[in-house]
Amino acid sequence: MSADCLFCRIIAGEIPATRVHEDDQVLVIRDIGPKAPTHVLLLSKAHIASAADLTDEDGPMLGRLFGVAAEVARAEGLDGGWRLVSNVGPDAGQSVPHLHVHLLGGRAMGWPPG
Question: 6-105: what fold?
Answer without folding.
Answer: HIT family, subunit A (3.30.428)
